[in-house]
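haha ok so turns out i had the wrong file open the whole time. this is the CORRECT one, sorry everyone. sequence first:
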Amino acid sequence: MNSLKATAIGAVLLAFPGASDAFVAENGLVVEPGPARGFEVTYRGRSGAPAFWCAAGDYVTRHLGLRPTTRIYRVSTGPRRGGAAMRFSLDAEGAKRPGLFIWSDDKGLTASFARQFCDLPGSR
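then structure:
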């Protein structure tokens, strides 16, 4: 993301109460901390599941400073409707399928695997 775009997004976030806790992922999606060990990735036009996972992986590794092996779980119900956010947790309780065309035994993905979606076309 270029610095002008990041600065503009940062200025908008600072204009809203409570937005200072928000994190702008490298693909421009905004991640809001949630209760317990949860967080929410907000919708930005034409954002598919890979873009949400990209933002989640970026948030966990860069913002929270957790290890790339940290598991991330989608806890929002699916399928996600257009314009809806996607909720994630670091706890497996309430986890749903990842919502991607991949298979996962325990429904979660590692932060490093999620972060790899940032390299796909359309995830930025």
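Residues 43 and 82 are 8 Å apart (CA to CA).
again sry for the mixup
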